[in-house]
Amino acid sequence: QVQLVESGGGLVRAGGSLRVSCAASGFNLDRYAYGWFRQAPGKEREGVAGIGAGEHSIYYADSVKGRFTISRDNAKNTVYLQMNSLQPEDTAVYYCAATTGWRFYKLVSSEYDYWGQGTQVTVSS
């Protein structure tokens, strides 16, 4: 059974940093591409970062480019999102998602097959 479990969310002040993690189980992580998405209250889900199975293909939404870093550790079956210089507008529930598809770079929800339950990130001003 495929399972993605996010952790590491919390409350941080503007300008601070957080790292959220996504632990994968039930499948061979090496063969999947991963994405991080976020959804703020009253807003649509937004793709923020994606990483290919080969690790060298990485994509970011313009809103987080230069501040967020996605990475993966296949030995630990874990994907990370390091978030620096956080701002109140980054407040959202952050979701991890996985896909075997090649369109992962589009950071569109419909291109991903498996989803975690989400972790709340709140940035205070």
Please specify the SSE layout and strand pairing.
Layout: E1 3-7, E2 10-13, E3 18-25, E4 33-39, E5 46-51, E6 58-60, E7 68-73, E8 78-83, E9 92-99, E10 114-115, E11 119-124
What this model shows, in words?
The protein is mainly β and 125 residues long. Helices cover 0% and strands 49% of the residues. The chain contains no helices and 11 strands. The chain has strands at residues 3-7, 10-13, 18-25, 33-39, 46-51, 58-60, 68-73, 78-83, 92-99, 114-115, 119-124. The model has no long low-confidence stretch (mean pLDDT 94).
Compute the number of strand runs: 11
- Helical fraction: under 10%
Structural class: mainly beta
From the spread of the alpha carbons, the general shape counts as globular
- Say what oligomer this is: single chain
Write down the overall mean pLDDT.
Answer: 94
Fraction in beta strands: over 45%
Low-pLDDT sequence parts: none
User: Termini, distance in Å?
Assistant: 40 Å
- Backbone CA Rg: 13 Å
Largest sheet: 7 strands, mixed
Series of secondary-structure elements, N-terminal to C-terminal: EEEEEEEEEEE
Specify the number of helices.
0
